């Protein structure tokens, strides 16, 4: 990763260092429920949390949603505020919260390509490929409906997956994250990719206007609308949820009917947002958007 990533990472580490010490109790694997699993990748034990809804019955293929935590976080604690289990129950998909490895003592995702400037040697791209294969070997996953979303550093990584491993990922969601300049410059997806981005205008950690090494949200929207050949002028709707104003920018009519959506949270900070937009919270906004697509475009 670039040097800039570590400046951001130190800030994020401070934000999450006050997390509680209580662990989430996780049951042993069963046909449904919440539990942890471990796989070996490149000689390293990698863990992840998987949630299998009661509705899963092995008679038909189901979607897979990967949700990546931010820098300095643990998957079990992240699940508590980025909880998609109710959606998995009602919408019938397998939900996975992977755990990042430690970098200078803090969990992280290596969103950068291998290079002399990348201070992390974690092969997270390889881990995700092995993880998807393992989930598919245990459950009937629809390989055309594997989705990725993430928060902060997890969103950096989600963009990188869509750029470098798009053969695995149908559509993506980002909360309080952006594209690293390296990812932006090297991005080469193999198919039109629908993208939803939720970001606060007062985010002091991952600034809306960008900073050295991190692209602005406008740059990110321009990239994906251009790549998908979506309309350059969005439809904009503005609502107020209590004291919070949210602008929804929708870019439609892309190749294979893909679209790009951006929820601008006016004065919003660096959080997984607790918002309500027409009855949908952050998790529902992401799922409702990405699940409209498979790897071939609009379903």
Q: What oligomerization state is this entry in?
A: single chain
**Main beta sheet: strand number and arrangement?**
10 strands, mixed
Give the DSSP E fraction (strand runs of 2 or more residues): 25-35%
Specify the number of helices: 8
Mean pLDDT: 91
Helical content stands at 25-40%
Neighbour order of strands in the largest sheet: 1-2-4-3-7-8-9-12-11-10
Radius of gyration: 18 Å
Give the number of DSSP strands: 14
| Helix/strand/pairing category | alpha/beta
- Straight-line distance between termini: 35 Å
User: What overall geometry do the principal axes of the alpha carbons give?
Assistant: globular
> Any low-confidence stretches, pLDDT <50, length ≥5?
1-7, 13-30
Written as H for each helix and E for each strand, in order along the chain, the element string is HEEEHHEEEHEHEHEHEEEHEE
């Amino acid at each position: 990763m670039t040097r800039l990533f570590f400046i951001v990472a130190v800030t994020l580490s401070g934000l999450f260092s006050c997390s509680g010490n209580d662990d989430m109790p996780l049951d042993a694997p069963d046909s449904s429920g919440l539990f942890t699993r471990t796989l070996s990748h490149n000689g390293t034990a990698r863990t992840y949390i998987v949630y299998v809804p009661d509705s899963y019955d092995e008679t038909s293929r189901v979607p897979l949603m990967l949700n990546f935590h931010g820098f300095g976080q643990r998957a079990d604690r992240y699940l508590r505020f980025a909880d998609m289990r109710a959606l998995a129950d009602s919408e019938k998909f397998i939900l996975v919260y992977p755990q990042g490895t430690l970098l200078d003592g803090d969990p992280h995702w290596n969103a950068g390509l291998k290079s002399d400037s990348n201070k992390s040697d974690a092969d997270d791209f390889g881990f995700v490929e092995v993880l998807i294969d393992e989930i598919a070997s245990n459950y009937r996953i629809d390989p055309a409906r594997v989705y990725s979303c993430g928060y902060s550093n997890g969103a950096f990584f989600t963009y990188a997956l869509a750029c470098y491993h798009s053969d695995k990922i149908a559509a993506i969601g980002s909360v309080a994250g952006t594209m690293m300049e390296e990812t932006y410059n090297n991005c080469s997806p193999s198919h039109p990719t629908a993208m939803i981005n939720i970001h606060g205008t007062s985010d002091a950690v991952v600034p809306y206007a960008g900073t050295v090494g991190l692209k602005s949200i406008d740059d990110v929207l321009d990239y994906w609308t251009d790549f998908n050949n979506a309309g350059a002028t969005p439809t904009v709707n503005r609502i107020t949820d209590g004291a919070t104003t949210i602008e929804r920018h929708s870019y439609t009519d892309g190749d294979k009917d893909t679209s790009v959506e951006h929820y601008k949270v006016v004065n919003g900070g660096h959080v997984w947002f607790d918002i309500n937009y027409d009855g949908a919270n952050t998790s529902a906004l992401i799922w409702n958007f990405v699940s409209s697509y498979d790897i071939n475009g609009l379903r």
